[in-house]
């Protein structure tokens, strides 16, 4: 290794060379360098590198462990509440945005965690010239923390990619205030045990709800997604029959390509009552994408009034009754 | 222009197969010979050779002066280019840069003082030798591994905000060119 007799004058390098040096470091190291001084942060902000503009910034918001900002697979910084047990001798002072906090390697300790998380997020966005694209919010996060995150998301003039919202009823009440939060491609996932409807107002391409026993048919009016997974729902076959009839008339789930609906029973007669269908027994495949392929082992084709065909098939396993509705054509064509 | 060498010619490596040799003169008048395959690693030098119309016959009679690179750096550069002249193109490492391990020979070559490394990377940039640039950047990037901001300030000589402010104040207080 090089001698440590004198510092390596990093910021005296020509801009293009500095850019290549940044390409040879990892995003977490770039952030560490940016925390050295305001000037360092400014130089990083205005020096191009291969890491920039990648929309791969993720915020993990936990209630019981340090929150984390991550770029690709590189955790950049953790933010944790400062406890009196912490030995400040091992910590160094760091300034992020307007906040001064204590830091140990990649973890920032502070009393006003929400403010520091905000500063850390905005600092990271500056470093990589991109928005936070995805959020993972733990059910252990408090209502005020979740409200703060959503408030912040709402204030950004951007379209997010993904949000995993794993929280209890109390915490997500009031989500209706944030209807302007937009997602463009993947999922908002909620694992609420209780009756909560407000999150359904958030438009998304794909919606997965785990433990969705609280979902009722009227909630589907807010779920006009391409991919809908309600495996944990407790619909009756009568409910599914109504859903299929409304879909057939083009009144419900008109954008749906692939939907899974958890049911309490498996009564095909009730499921298809009053619906014109064609049964088939051969195996087919339904491709949502090249990597997302669903096998179909027989089922019932229903042709909508506009000529669109949907296949209803049984997707139950030993634990859960589930019916799928797959709308053709799939991504093969 | 013909420049008389003031110091003995430095034979960095025995040239095995390629009979075409070029002479390079550093800023401090050290003369180096370099093979055709090796010199091609430097886009700047190869463009110069091509533009000057140097051939196997007249190459050694027409040394190429490189005024921006001193003898010490040129020696390292020539060693590097001779070492890597027959290398195949390496795969691009993008997101997984840590998978790429700097070869031990090159790590040894680049185990130099930080100020020398700084001058070497400037020379490498001037001579446009991408592979050596990648390797130097890797060495500089590796210095940041597992370091805190406080440690990085020392490693990279980054002033604190207070030091930057003081520098700025003293710069604005100092008299201008006319004063």
Automatic annotation (TrEMBL), chain A:
InterPro entries: F-box-like_dom_sf (IPR036047), F-box_dom (IPR001810)
F-box domain location: 7-54
SUPFAM superfamilies: F-box domain (SSF81383)
Pfam families attached to this UniProt entry: F-box
Protein name as catalogued: F-box domain-containing protein
UniProtKB/TrEMBL annotation, chain B:
GO-annotated biological processes: ubiquitin-dependent protein catabolic process
Keywords: Ubl conjugation pathway
Domain SKP1 component dimerisation: from-to ranges: 130-166
Record bears the keyword Phosphoprotein: no
Pfam families named among the record's database cross-references: Skp1 (PF01466), Skp1_POZ (PF03931)
Keyword Acetylation on entry: no
InterPro entries, sorted: SKP1, SKP1-like, SKP1-like_dim_sf, SKP1/BTB/POZ_sf, Skp1_comp_dimer, Skp1_comp_POZ
CDD domains in alphabetical order: BTB_POZ_SKP1 (cd18322)
Family affiliation: Belongs to the SKP1 family.
Protein's name in the database: Skp1-related protein
């Amino acid at each position: 290794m090089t001698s440590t007799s004198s510092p390596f004058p990093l910021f005296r390098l020509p801009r293009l060379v500095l850019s290549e040096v940044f390409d040879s470091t990892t995003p977490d190291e770039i952030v560490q360098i940016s925390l050295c001084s305001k000037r360092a942060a400014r130089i990083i902000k205005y020096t191009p590198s291969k890491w920039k503009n990648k929309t791969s910034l993720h915020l993990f918001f936990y209630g019981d462990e340090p929150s984390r900002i991550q770029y690709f697979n590189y955790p950049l910084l953790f933010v944790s509440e400062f406890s009196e047990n912490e030995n400040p001798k091992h910590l160094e002072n760091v300034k992020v945005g307007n906040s001064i906090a204590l830091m140990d390697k990649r973890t920032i300790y502070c009393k006003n965690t929400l403010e520091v998380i905000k500063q850390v997020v905005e600092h990271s966005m500056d470093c990589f010239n991109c928005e936070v694209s995805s959020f993972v919010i733990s059910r252990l996060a408090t209502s005020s923390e979740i409200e703060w995150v959503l408030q912040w998301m709402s204030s950004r003039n951007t379209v997010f990619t993904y949000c995993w919202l794993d929280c209890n009823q109390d915490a997500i009440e009031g989500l209706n205030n944030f209807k302007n939060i937009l997602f463009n491609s993947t999922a908002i996932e909620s694992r609420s045990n209780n009756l909560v409807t407000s999150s359904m107002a958030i438009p998304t391409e794909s919606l997965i709800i785990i433990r969705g026993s609280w979902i009722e048919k009227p909630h589907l009016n807010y779920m006009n997604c391409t991919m809908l997974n309600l495996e944990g729902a407790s619909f009756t076959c009568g409910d599914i029959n109504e859903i299929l009839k409304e879909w057939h008339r083009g009144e419900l789930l008109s954008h749906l390509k692939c939907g899974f609906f958890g049911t309490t029973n498996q009564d095909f007669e009730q499921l298809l009552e009053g619906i014109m269908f064609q049964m088939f027994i051969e195996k087919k495949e339904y491709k949502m994408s090249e990597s997302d392929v669903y096998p179909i082992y027989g089922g019932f084709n229903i042709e909508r009034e506009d000529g669109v065909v949907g296949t209803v098939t049984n997707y139950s396993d030993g634990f859960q009754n589930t019916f799928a509705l797959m709308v053709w054509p799939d991504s093969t064509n | 222009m013909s420049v008389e060498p003031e110091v003995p010619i430095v034979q960095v490596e025995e040239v095995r197969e390629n009979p075409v040799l070029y002479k390079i003169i550093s800023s401090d008048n050290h003369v180096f010979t370099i093979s055709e395959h090796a010199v091609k690693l430097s886009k700047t030098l190869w463009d110069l050779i091509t533009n000057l119309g140097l051939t196997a016959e007249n190459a050694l009679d027409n040394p190429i002066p490189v005024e921006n690179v001193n003898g010490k750096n040129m020696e390292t550069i020539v060693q590097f280019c001779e070492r890597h002249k027959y290398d195949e193109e390496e795969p691009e490492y993008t997101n997984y840069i840590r998978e790429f391990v700097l070869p031990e020979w090159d790590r040894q070559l680049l185990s130099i003082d930080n100020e020398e490394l700084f001058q070497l990377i400037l020379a490498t940039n001037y001579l446009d030798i991408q592979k050596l640039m990648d390797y130097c950047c890797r060495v500089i990037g590796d210095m940041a591994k597992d370091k805190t901001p406080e440690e990085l300030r020392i490693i990279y000589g980054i002033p604190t905000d207070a030091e930057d402010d003081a520098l700025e104040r003293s710069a604005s207080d100092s008299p201008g060119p006319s004063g």
